[in-house]
Amino acid sequence: MVTVRAPGKVILYGEHAVVYGEPALAMAVNKYIYVTAKARDDNKVSINARDLRLAGISVTIHENGDIVARTDYGAVISALSYVKRAVELAMEYFNKKVGIDLMIRSEMPVGAGLGTSAAVAVATILAYVKELGYDVDKRELARLAWQVERDVQGSASPTDTTMATFGGIMYIKPEGNSTAMEPVKPGVTIPLIIGYTPRVSTTKDLVAMVRRKYESMRDVIEPIIRSIGVITRKGREALEKGDLELMGVLMNINHGLLDALGVSTKQLNEMVYVARYAGALGSKLTGAGGGGCMIALTNKSEVEKAIELTGGSVLKAGLDTDGTVVISND
Amino acid sequence: MVTVRAPGKVILYGEHAVVYGEPALAMAVNKYIYVTAKARDDNKVSINARDLRLAGISVTIHENGDIVARTDYGAVISALSYVKRAVELAMEYFNKKVGIDLMIRSEMPVGAGLGTSAAVAVATILAYVKELGYDVDKRELARLAWQVERDVQGSASPTDTTMATFGGIMYIKPEGNSTAMEPVKPGVTIPLIIGYTPRVSTTKDLVAMVRRKYESMRDVIEPIIRSIGVITRKGREALEKGDLELMGVLMNINHGLLDALGVSTKQLNEMVYVARYAGALGSKLTGAGGGGCMIALTNKSEVEKAIELTGGSVLKAGLDTDGTVVISND
C-alpha cells in the first residue's frame, strides 16, 4: 500500500495575461491531495474519494480494457474522470493492467482554482506506479499528468501539473506553442491566506469571455494585459529580493486589472478588500476568477477572521518545496 | 430677490487619467445647488446654508472690504469659503460692494465628488450679479467660478465650473497647460443612478497617491492610464451612437482600472457590484474615489434598492442641458 501526496498551487501574478504571451508566477502551496493505492487481486479499479465531497463510488475495468464508472451522477463522473484517465494512462505507459483500490483525500476545496485536478492526476499516477513497484521520472510524471488534463478537458496549460509534480515557485513563460517554466527562489517566507467561495463560472468560459473582449476592443484590453505582464516581472523580482511590501502593492494592482477584465465577483472583491483593511500587505483573486479563490499576503489571524465574516472559507498556506512525494510505502 | 440654480456633474469616463493628458467625459446632472440672493441695505453678507448640512452662519464685510466669517468652526468655514470668495470676486469684477443675503440649498451630497463646490461658486456669482441688476457672459462666469475654486483650493481643474455653468456633456481634452472642452451630443437618454458614501480621502491625497505609483512604477501604471484614455474615446463614440450597452461594458472596465490605481474602497466596490447584479448595464466609481460616488447606467429601481441595502445613499439623475439658470427674479 502506497500513499502519495501532491500539492495545490496558487497564481501569484499573471493569470489570464499568460494566455496572451505574458509570464505568470505560480506557487505550490502546502495543502495536498493524498492518494493511497493498494493493488487488488482482481482487475477492478475502486475509488473512494469521500473527502473530495464525492460519494465513494466504484469503477470497473471492463474486459476490453475500458474503465467505466458505475453511476451516471454527472458531477462525480466529471471529477473522477481525472482519476480514471490517470489510471488508464499509467496502465498504458507501463503496459500493465492491475486492479487497484484508490483512496483520495483533499485538504483543499475541489474545483476552486487551486489545481486540485492536476494534483489528483499527479498523485494518482505516482501512487499507482509505486504500488506496482515501478518508478517514474518527475518529468515523465508531469508529462503524463498533463496528458490526463488535456484528455479530460480538451486543452490544458501545463502549469498545474508542473506545480503539483515539482512544487516550489515557477516563473511561467509562454514561448510560441510551448511553455517554459523557470524555478524561482524566494528571498523571504511567503505567508498566504487563501479565501474561497463557490465558483459561478468555469475557467473555460472566463477565458473565452476575456478573449471576446480582447477581440472586440483590443486597444483597451491589450494595455491591461501588458501591464499585468510588467507586474509579474516586477513581482518575481520583489519575491527574489524578499520585498513583501512591493509584492503586496503589485497584487493589489493586479487584482484591479483582473476586475477590469471582468473576471472578479462581488464576493471575491469583498474578500480581497476586507483582507487589505484587516492588514494584509496585498490581496487579489487567484486563478481564473468567477468565484473561486483569492489570496492575501499575510499570516494575520485578523485577516482570516475578516474573510470568514464575509462568508468565505479560509486556508492558511505556505510554500510547498517538494512537489509530489511518497509519504508511505509498505 | 433672485434665485439661481447650477447643476452638479459626474465623470462618465477618464477621472485620474485626465491628470496624465488623457481625455475625460463629464456629464452635468439634473441635481442642483440653489442660491437665492437678496440685496441688503447694509454692507453685510449673510449666508444661510442649512441644506448644505452647515449651520446657518453670518459673515460680515469689514470696512476694509474683507469678508470674515464670524465663526471658527472649521468645516463650515471650509465649505463657506467658496461662497465668500465667489462674492468677493463678483464684487471685484463689477467693482461694486453691496451687502447681500444668500440662501443656499443643495439637492446633492456636498463634498462627494459631484462638483457641488463649483456649483456653489457658479450659482453664487450669478445670483449676486443678477440681484445687482447686472449681466454676465457664461464664459466670464465660468472663468470667475474657476478662479474661486483655484483661490480656495490652491489648484483646480476647470471641469466642474464649466459643467456647472454650461451643463450638457463635455469631452475634456487636456492640451498642454490648458484644457479644451468640447460639447458632446448624446444619441440616447442616459439614465443614471448615483450611489454615495462618506469620503475617507481627499481628491488631493488620491491624486498624489496615484502620482507616487506612477513615478515609482511607471511601466505598470502608464498602460493603465492609456487604456482609460481609449475607454474614454470609445465611451464618447458609444454615447454619440446611443449604444448604452457598450457604454456599460466600458464603465465596468474603467472601474477595474480605477481599482487598479488604488482609488476605490470596499464600499464603492460593493455598490458597483450590486448595481451590476441588480441589472445595471455598467457601473463605476466616479470622481476621485476614496469613498464618494459611484454611477450605475440604469434607471431600474432594483438597482436603487440594491445600493441602499449596502448602506449607500441614492440619487436618480438625468442629464442637465441648461447649466446654470435664473429660475426666479422678482
UniProtKB/TrEMBL annotation, chains A, B:
Pathway: Isoprenoid biosynthesis; isopentenyl diphosphate biosynthesis via mevalonate pathway; isopentenyl diphosphate from (R)-mevalonate: step 1/3. One of its GO terms (molecular function) is ATP binding. It is found in: Cytoplasm. Residues 81-168 form the GHMP kinase N-terminal domain. It is an enzyme of class 2 (transferase). The active site is at D160. The keyword Zinc does not apply. Residues 237-308 form the GHMP kinase C-terminal domain. Its main location: cytoplasm. It comes from the Archaea. Its cofactor is Mg(2+). One of its GO terms (cellular component) is cytosol. Coiled coil: none annotated. Keywords: ATP-binding, Cytoplasm, Isoprene biosynthesis, Kinase, Lipid biosynthesis, Lipid metabolism, Magnesium, Nucleotide-binding, Transferase. InterPro entries: GHMP_kinase_C_dom, GHMP_kinase_C_sf, GHMP_kinase_N_dom, Mev_gal_kin, Mevalonate/galactokinase, Mevalonate_kinase_arc, Ribosomal_Su5_D2-typ_SF, Ribsml_uS5_D2-typ_fold_subgr. It holds the Pfam family GHMP_kinases_C. Its EC number is 2.7.1.36. Belongs to the GHMP kinase family. Mevalonate kinase subfamily. Homodimer. This is Mevalonate kinase. It comes from Vulcanisaeta souniana JCM 11219.
